[in-house]
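Task: sequence design from structure.
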């Protein structure tokens, strides 16, 4: 039986995100097994930036490795996060920050069908939340079939109403068929399908999903982004992702080469300022 894994980044039970996943599963039918992971219940520590996971595994003894195993063994994944102050909840980002660990599992994760969903209480007050959820999918190596903002403030509101019901149907269809959704007629990054852009100057734009830059032209009033791949690619292809992982591994050698020359830079600023200890640490 195929399995759908729902990763829920809300602290609420029930949350609109989790209810949305369950409603999608209801539409998929009982031929699919549904698993839910409420990420706030999982012990996921902050990345310590030691890069050891690229060589011999993460030294942190938390739930991250097990989480990756669940993602790798699912046939499809939905990740949902609530919008908090225009971005996705920190629970999602904490998990994404551990993304260097995904490099050891690229072959299992690459191309897995995934959907990114954020919930928001106020229409169009979702800011960059969806971009964060889309990014989580790409960083996991998933095949982003589509992404949605679900509007509803109170638990339950995210699965009612014509608009939300239509999104549930679309999401179920995408998972059942493995086909990406036709999302909008708006401009898309030709490299990664991203739909969020930043203007770097009057004519240069950057795709905020893959971070590549380029320009755009107008054709019949339609904006057409022309984005070029830069040297570093995190997820445009499996080969590029592996190449980037290899480049990161090579950084260890490069750091050892420049470490001594950086020491005076660090020393010159050592001891400056007073570090304020958090009250929780100073209580004995
Ligand atoms: C701390 C906090 C910040 C929020 N910020 C926003 C916001 O910026 N924009 C918005 O539309 N909704 C905001 N909301 C509302 C939630 O996104 C909304 O209730 C949503 O349904 C929560 O989804 P969930 O039930 O899956 O957790 C906020 C809620 C909380 C608790």
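Answer:
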């Amino acid at each position: 039986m195929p399995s759908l894994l729902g990763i829920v980044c809300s602290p609420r039970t029930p949350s609109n995100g989790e209810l949305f996943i369950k409603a999608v599963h209801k539409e998929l039918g009982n031929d699919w097994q549904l698993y839910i992971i409420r990420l706030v219940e999982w012990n996921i520590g902050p990345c310590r930036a030691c890069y050891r996971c690229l060589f011999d595994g993460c030294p942190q003894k938390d739930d991250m490795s097990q989480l990756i195993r669940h993602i790798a063994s699912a046939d499809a994944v939905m990740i949902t996060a609530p919008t908090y102050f225009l971005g996705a909840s920190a629970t999602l980002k904490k998990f994404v920050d551990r993304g260097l660990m995904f490099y050891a599992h690229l072959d299992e994760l690459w191309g897995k069908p995934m959907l990114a969903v954020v919930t928001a209480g106020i229409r169009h007050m979702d800011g960059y939340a969806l971009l964060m959820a889309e990014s989580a999918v790409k960083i996991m190596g998933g095949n982003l079939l589509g992404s949605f903002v679900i509007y509803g403030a109170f638990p339950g509101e995210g699965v009612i109403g014509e608009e939300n019901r239509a999104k549930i149907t679309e999401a179920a269809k995408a998972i059942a068929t493995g086909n990406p959704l036709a999302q909008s007629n708006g401009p898309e990054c030709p490299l990664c399908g991203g739909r969020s852009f930043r203007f770097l100057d009057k004519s240069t734009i950057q795709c905020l999903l893959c971070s590549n830059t380029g320009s755009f032209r107008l054709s019949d009033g339609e904006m057409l982004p022309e984005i070029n791949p830069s040297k570093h690619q995190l997820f445009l292809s499996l080969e590029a992702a592996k190449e980037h992982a290899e480049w990161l591994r090579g950084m260890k050698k490069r750091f050892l080469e420049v470490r001594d020359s950086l020491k005076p830079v660090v020393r010159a600023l050592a001891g400056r300022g007073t570090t304020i200890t958090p009250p929780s640490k100073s209580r004995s």
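The two ends are 53 Å apart (CA to CA).
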